[in-house]
């Protein structure tokens, strides 16, 4: 990514940062739930490689659109937070009208999916787009904005699954709800970086709600994650290897919040980044489970 950034003209550099292309971990965490959807919907035991590539491009652009919406809403708040005050809109490097054009460009894949995809995918988009637009407002009214982020950040799973099958089945719904609980855990670890700044800015997060009880809360939502993902494996008819992989994935998630130092921004960031490993572990578990699946693959669109 750094090499690609070096090829950009100077005027494009603020847009690179606005879309968070300099921090690909966010794209990965948006992308990975979608890969589970590809794996579940594919007619073979391995995920459709073409869909996987298309999904990554979609994820990178749509995540950039979501970041633009977030920074537009939060431009005044970001100036009060040390980690965020240099963001391009808050810093005045990009105007609100320029940000709107950048949003429209990166949201274009959503329009393509809406008009070119099967009818079922439109139902998912009707849910996703409003959530993407209003998510940043939740931190102003509730200590649980991470719940809204979870519903938004895992939508690629339902989107790609419905795009490939023109149907919504219990299995992807369970994985979606489990992914939402998982997001709540890892984004709360992320939020501990900004506790003092958030108090000063007057915004809310689960980090402020959980306080020093973060291990108990994280354990609760990790258990919910496991329950949904277990049910998803059962509904999908995945074989025994999936459930072993699921156990390992949950162990990795538990390791994160059991060992993180919530008073260290560096520790919080490292554990947050480690979730791409958890997402890949679950993908591997689904693939392994499909090899010994006890039910047929879902029908194609």
How does this structure look, described?
The protein has 301 residues and is an all-alpha fold. The model has no long low-confidence stretch (mean pLDDT 93). It has one domain (2-291): Orthogonal Bundle (Tetracycline Repressor, domain 2), CATH 1.10.357. 46% of the residues are buried. The chain contains 18 helices and no strands. The protein starts with a helix and ends in a 10-residue tail after the last helix. 73% of the residues lie in helices and 0% in strands.
- CATH topology term: Tetracycline Repressor, domain 2
Quantity of strands, as a count = 0
Assign the CATH class. Answer: Mainly Alpha
pLDDT < 50 runs, ≥5 residues: none
Write a compact overview of the structure shown.
With 301 residues, this protein is mainly α.
Write the layout of secondary structure elements.
Blueprint (H helix, E strand, L loop, with lengths): L1 H5 L6 H6 L6 H17 L7 H25 L1 H4 L17 H11 L1 H9 L2 H16 L3 H4 L3 H9 L1 H11 L4 H22 L3 H7 L4 H5 L3 H22 L4 H20 L5 H9 L1 H17 L10
């Amino acid at each position: 990514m750094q090499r690609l950034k070096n090829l950009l003209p100077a005027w494009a550099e603020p847009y690179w940062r606005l879309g968070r292309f300099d921090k690909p971990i966010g794209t990965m965490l948006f992308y990975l739930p979608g890969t589970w959807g590809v794996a579940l919907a594919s007619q073979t035991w391995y995920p459709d490689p073409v869909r996987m590539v298309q999904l990554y491009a979609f994820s990178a652009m749509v995540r950039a659109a979501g970041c633009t919406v977030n920074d537009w809403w939060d431009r005044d708040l970001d100036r009060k937070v040390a980690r965020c005050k240099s963001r391009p809109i808050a810093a005045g490097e990009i105007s609100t009208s320029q940000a709107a054009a950048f949003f429209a460009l990166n949201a274009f894949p959503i329009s393509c999916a809406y008009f070119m995809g099967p009818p079922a995918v439109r139902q998912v988009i009707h849910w996703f787009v409003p959530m993407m637009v209003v998510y940043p407002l939740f931190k102003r009214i509730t200590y649980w904005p991470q719940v809204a982020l979870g519903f938004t950040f895992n939508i690629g799973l339902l989107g790609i699954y419905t795009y490939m099958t023109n149907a919504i089945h219990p299995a992807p719904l369970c994985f979606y709800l489990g992914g939402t609980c998982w997001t709540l855990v890892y984004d709360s670890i992320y939020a501990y970086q900004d506790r003092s700044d958030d108090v000063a800015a007057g915004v809310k997060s689960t980090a402020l709600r959980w306080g020093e009880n973060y291990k108990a809360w994280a354990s609760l939502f990790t258990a919910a994650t496991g329950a949904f993902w277990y049910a998803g494996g059962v509904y999908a008819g995945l074989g025994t290897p999936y459930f072993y992989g699921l156990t390992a994935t949950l162990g990795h998630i538990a390791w994160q919040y059991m060992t993180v130092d919530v008073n260290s921004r560096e520790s919080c960031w490292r554990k947050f980044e480690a979730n791409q490993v958890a997402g890949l572990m679950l993908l591997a578990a689904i693939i392994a489970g499909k090899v010994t699946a006890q039910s047929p693959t879902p029908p194609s669109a």
